[in-house]
């Protein structure tokens, strides 16, 4: 599939979310499609908006995607901040996020 097709699909899913703001699945799909076509700024903006507007409903896999992107860019404190925010919402962190926390802390110590 061409990059342009991914981008058009992402825009369509983002429009669905704008029409139905409770449809976080559409937003998650849009986010993954934007990442696939290297629209990282858009990818990050959508994730940050979702975490801000829907902190209790956002899939923890989306928190992990954002944290992973921050860690890939040596922004470990930002990654930890978003993971801790998810934890503060009273949610138990799954193993994949616990690993991300441990990895970020280890890298910061080294």
UniProtKB/TrEMBL annotation:
InterPro entries, per database record: Tfc4/TFIIIC-102/Sfc4, TPR-like_helical_dom_sf
A GO cellular component annotation in the UniProt record: transcription factor TFIIIC complex
Domain of life the protein comes from: Eukaryota
GO biological process: transcription by RNA polymerase III
Signal sequence interval, chain numbering: none
Cited PANTHER family: GENERAL TRANSCRIPTION FACTOR 3C POLYPEPTIDE 3, TRANSCRIPTION INITIATION FACTOR IIIC TFIIIC , POLYPEPTIDE 3-RELATED
Record protein name field: Uncharacterized protein
Organism ancestry: Eukaryota, Viridiplantae, Streptophyta, Embryophyta, Tracheophyta
